[in-house]
Design a protein that fits this description.
Layout (H helix, E strand, L loop, with lengths): L4 E5 L3 H13 L3 E5 L2 H10 L4 E4 L8 H9 L9 E5 L4 H9 L4 E4 L4 H11 L1
Parallel strand pairs: 1-2, 1-3, 3-4, 4-5
Amino acid sequence: MAIKKVLVVDDSKTELMFMTDLLQKNGFAVRTAENADDAFKRLAEDKPDLILMDVVMPGQNGFQLTRAITRDPKFSDVPIIMCTSKNQETDRVWGMRQGARDYITKPVDADELMAKIKALG
């Protein structure tokens, strides 16, 4: 399945702008959400082909949100890449256990992210 539509979930406006700009320059249609509630609204409006998920957010964190999305039959086929400042191996393992397909640490390296997206598509 070709990845065209990406949902970026991050509470940092700076990160949202950086990721949106990077993805749009690479031909992706991008929607953003700043928290779990926003993310579920965006999912209901238009199912993405990929979700880029921050971990540290107010309210429901990215691990919890990833688990909720991957367990929902409507969205369980949407791959999630965690994009987070949490750089410990235990964080990566926990993210993958919640259902993430891949894990990348901030600051996000553009080439690394594009390679991970390409590997999924």
